[in-house]
Amino acid sequence: MSDATTPRKRGPQARAARNDQALIEAAREVFIAQGFDAPVSAVAERAGVGMGSLYRRYRTKEELLQRLCADSMQRLDETARAGLAINDPWQGVAHYIVECARFGFGALAPLAGTIDITPEIQQAVEQAQQSTDELITRAQNAGALRADVTAMDIHLLVGRFSRPGRAPSRHAEEETRARLLAIVLDGLRAQNAGPLPGTPADPREYHAMWGADSSTAGRRQSE
Question: Domains in the chain, ordered, with CATH?
Answer without folding.
Answer: 8-58 (1.10.10), 67-210 (1.10.357.10)
